[in-house]
Amino acid sequence: MAGAGSTIALSTYFDAGDPRFLAEVEKSDAALVLGNLALRWLGDRRPELRRMLLEYVDGGLERPNHQPLVKRLFKGAEAARDHELMAHLLVACDRLCRRQLKTVTRWDWTTRSASIEQHLKQDKRIPRGRAPTAGMAPENGQAPRPKRGRHFDSFTYSTRRYLVRRAWRYLRELSAQDPDAYLLAASTALQLYQDEHLQTPTQLLDSWGLVHLLYHHSPLLEPARAGWTVHEGQDLAGLQPAPFRPELWARSPEPLFDLLVRARARTVRLFAMEQLRSAHAAALQQLNFEVVRRILASHDPEVQTFAASLLEHASGVALLPVEEWLKLLQIQNPAALPVLCEQFARYVAPDRVSNPQLLALATSPAGPVASLAVEWLAARPIKDVTDLEARLALVRIPAQVARRAAIQHLLAVGQALPYIQAKHLRELLDAPFSDVRDAGLEWMAKEPRFAKDLSLWAALSETPYDDVRAVFLGRLSEMQGNLPSGSILRVWTSVILAVHRGNRAKAHAVRQVAERVVSSPAQAQELLPLLQVGLRSLRAPERRGALAALTRAAFLAPSFRALLGVALPELKLEPLALDGRSP
Which end of the chain, N or C, is less surrounded by CB atoms within 10 Å? Predict the structure, then answer.
């Protein structure tokens, strides 16, 4: 009886090697058809069919009514001595048996006291009785009858335990027959285990093959019929690698390097690092940099830190180009970066790194990298305005320690430069970090010429940062009382304070500035930024008087009209008609 999926599509996709074949197999529940497919699939040598076969096994062996396919694939792989497929089957079988940690309270009538014990018990969701397979006709042609009136569409507990032990037995016998093949199969299997299947100590103990591979000789563990158990009075926290056939892992470090890079489970990666330290300590002192770089490419921070510790003795490190070091310093690993920076400073002379490269390193979010780059930049003089403007990018360094060093460098060097301008100071005052803005305000207080720069103060009036605005308004209030009543700064200060304090006189102050602009064209370029701030803070009716004065002056003086177009681009002025009136 055919179930879900199409038998015709299954056969057609298989013959064509179509990528849809695997999906069709996974959704099918026709046990007889799937069972008959096993040997054909196993014997097919096309790469795409082989890949789909391994993916099918890696996906798990508990699909409903797939027992005939799984059993025949298992037996066929054994008979064909297919070490790779048996390694995949070992990992898949380790997920078949799962136990649960149960807490049991026992009462001792002799001592009249209760004791609490924990035991690993079989998962109740796994069937215990005999499980006939749907769709598989027995030899006499009669439909199978489920035992005790129940029907199971998955492996029984006994079958699961049998498959788990048989898969490991295959690798154990292989270690005696062909040690090299065993090491390759064991490495293949260890690369397939995943963290999601080893999240708890119970899941680790239920992985029969994995524990044999990594902890076979551990004094903490004891193999039992139902699975691995911990010796009484022992704790898994002290579990150390004690693999089956440890002498095979001591032959060469290459399989362990592969595990560091390719293993998906932290348990396996920790095993590889411990084996390298214990069995290959001498080889770790003579590694080529290419090997270390390969390990550094790992996604695991622990492996990256381990690889960084190997750089000190790796051959070829001193000959690395700067570009290669810059790639290494992009690793986002707080533990490995200090070691990498130390080796970078050891093998690379500062003059080999250009200013743009150092600026790129300085803006790194990693503190050790940014600090080293700032230190090297601070030792170089600022040559010209272009160099200064590039160096001001340091005020946006995310790393706090490096940013503070950069601020000290800029203040010490920048204040002595004759070509420093207000726009350079604005980089500090507009920085997103309060410590940079505080340094900018302190610098501004020490430079009297910045207090008279109207464009700088007009720009600061629109700052989004409260700390800058508070200092800014406080200093304006102090300045206002010490300025002559008719001075430009007095008028300018009145406008800014009126804007920020909501004073009703700000419309009058804006008109005063507009009239000063019209009557004194030489001061127009200084006052227009101030007027721009004031106009934007007024309502439309209050704005008309100032705009009228500016418009008249713009039509009378073409040069002023050009300045006005730059300061207030939103103000559109139409050309005058022949009679002198606006059309």
Answer: C
Report pTM: 0.68
Q: CB 196: neighbour CB atoms within 10 A?
A: 9
The residue whose two tokens read 């591979």 is: 213
Q: What's the pLDDT score for residue 116?
A: 52
Sign of CA dihedral 215, 220, 223, 224: negative
Q: Are 57 and 89 in contact (CB under 8 A)?
A: yes
Interacting residues of 385 by C-beta distance below 8 A, sequence separation 6+:
419
Q: How many residues does the chain have?
A: 583
pLDDT band at 172 (very low <50, low <70, confident <90, very high): very high
From residue 512, give the alpha-carbon distance in Å to each of 189, 489, 496.
84, 12, 13
Give Cα separations from 17 to 12, 24, 54, 58, 170 (angstroms): 8, 12, 15, 19, 30
pLDDT digits (tens, 9 = 90+) for 31-74: 999 999 999 999 999 999 999 999 999 999 989 899 999 999 99
At 121, is the secondary structure helix, strand, or coil?
Answer: strand
DSSP sequence for 229-291: EEPTT--GGG-----SSHHHHTS-SHHHHHHHHH-BSHHHHHHHHHHHHHH-HHHHTT-BHHH
